[in-house]
Design goal:
This protein has 414 residues and is α/β, with parallel strands linked by helices. It has a domain of 64 residues: ATPase, nucleotide binding domain (Nucleotidyltransferase, domain 5, 2-Layer Sandwich), CATH 3.30.420.40. It is built from 13 helices and 19 strands. A six-stranded mixed β-sheet has the order 11-6-1-2-3-19, with helices on both faces. A five-stranded mixed β-sheet has the order 14-13-12-17-18, sandwiched between helices. Helix 4 crosses helix 11, helix 6 packs antiparallel against helix 9 and helix 12 crosses helix 13. The two termini are 26 Å apart. The C terminus is likely disordered.
């Protein structure tokens, strides 16, 4: 199975296989390719991003020694919208016992909402169930009753973004087996069941966006995508130092710090050593000030989201930081100061094989895509999520079967 994470800065591909007798998936192919044709998580040039995906997938295939025909893709962008919805059905069996078909029907009922012409449903996430007078149920299967209700979170994306991802995959010669919202995929990869039970927020610091997912009592409470990411830090450095974006990125990665107070004001950075076309020495403390200001803004926006749901400072398991931006020196200390929560850096879990290639917070999303695929392939229930894949949601929304979904996606293709 394979996952392709189309990110603003980089496109990552993982190919993994389930080996009999091994609990973890074995990673056999990995690649990272600079992305072209995408801005803030939204595809703006299908031709360019398709070339990027082809290069990334082919590189992973060479490492794995095999080719792939289909993969799970992520979907992101600041145009993602969320809506709460409810569904109600009568139990189908004569004895009143709730079966999986009942759960799927009530979830399908919850996503029968009126959508704007330019929107598509990506996920329907079951938050909690009610069976007659029994409320706050996580899994009603096997219980008996007459009336089943669900409170769900409906996640929508623009039709344009869905079409562009479909076109990208088509041009790359890959079939999309599922589309998964970026923060949900990353959460699958790095969060434990215990963290979700206690209460935790996962913050994914991507290149063009920062996404977050909040869990409590094993349920997804809230998710959001903020239109600012670690790429904005690079741009700030380039403007502040009057240098190129490429040089600014190198400065950020090699000399950057999220806390200016931890950097000696006498420390300098020789720009000539980074790029022979540059000259002069800049203050490393000044660079840290630039980085700290932008990251503080990002965490303040995340704190605002937590405040909006009444969870600011009230998540015992704290915050887990992932994404390329999470590798910044002292970022956990800055995040702790702003969020007032315990902080840890998240690394993908549940893998074997060439671990050194994916043991990186930047691989959280693509790792989660592969894990997501395994959960549905083995028909396991994913904690807190509806057991309807994104394509099945598209199918129900269009009033048809999987064949109609394929027909729907053919309309997106050239």
């Amino acid at each position: 199975m394979a996952g392709v994470d189309i990110g603003t800065s980089n496109t990552r591909t993982i190919i993994a296989q389930q080996v009999r007798g091994e609990e973890n998936l074995r990673v056999i192919g990995v690649s990272v390719t600079p992305s072209v044709g995408i801005r803030r998580g939204v595809i703006i040039d299908v031709e360019d991003i398709a070339k990027t995906v082809i290069e990334s997938v082919e590189s992973a295939e060479r490492m794995a020694g095999l080719s792939i025909k289909q993969a799970i893709f992520n979907i992101s962008g600041s145009d993602i919208e969320f809506a709460n919805s409810k569904g109600v059905i009568a139990i189908g069996r004569a004895d009143g016992e709730v079966c999986e078909d009942d759960v799927n029907r009530v979830i399908a009922e919850s996503q029968m909402i009126q959508l704007p012409m330019n929107k598509e449903i990506v996920h329907v996430i079951a938050k909690k169930y009610r069976l007659d007078d029994q409320d706050n149920l996580k899994d009603p299967i096997g219980m008996k009753g007459v009336r089943l209700e669900v409170e769900a979170l409906v996640i929508e994306s623009s039709s344009t973004q869905v079409k562009n991802i479909s076109k990208t995959a088509y041009q790359a010669g890959i079939e999309i087996s599922d589309l998964v919202l970026e923060p949900l995929a990353a959460a699958v990869s790095v969060l434990t069941k215990k963290q979700k039970e206690l209460g935790v927020v996962m913050i994914n610091l991507g290149g063009g966006t920062t996404s977050l997912a909040v869990y409590e009592e094993g349920e997804l409470l809230h998710t959001a995508i903020l239109p600012v990411g670690s790429g904005h830090v690079t741009n700030d450095i380039a403007i502040g130092l009057r240098t190129s974006v490429e040089v600014a990125e190198k400065i950020k990665l090699e000399y950057g710090s999220a806390l200016a107070s931890g950097v000696d004001k006498k420390d300098g950075i020789d720009l000539t050593a980074i790029d022979s076309r540059e000259d002069g020495v800049v203050s490393r403390h000044h660079v840290a000030e630039i980085i700290e200001a932008r990251l503080e803004e990002i965490f303040s926006l995340a704190q605002k989201e937590l405040t909006s749901i009444g969870k600011a400072g009230l998540l015992p398991a704290g915050a887990v930081l992932v994404g390329g931006g999470a590798r910044m020196m002292h970022i956990n200390e800055l995040a702790k100061n702003v969020l007032g929560l315990p902080i840890q850096i998240g690394f993908p879990i549940g893998f074997g094989g060439i671990l050194d290639k994916v043991d990186d917070p930047a691989f959280a999303t693509v790792s989660g895509l592969v894990l997501w695929g395994r959960q549905y392939q083995t028909e396991e229930k994913h904690e807190g999520l509806a057991r309807i894949k994104a394509f099945e949601v598209f199918s129900r929304h269009s009033g048809g079967t999987m064949d109609k979904v394929k027909s729907l996606f053919k309309k997106f293709l050239p």
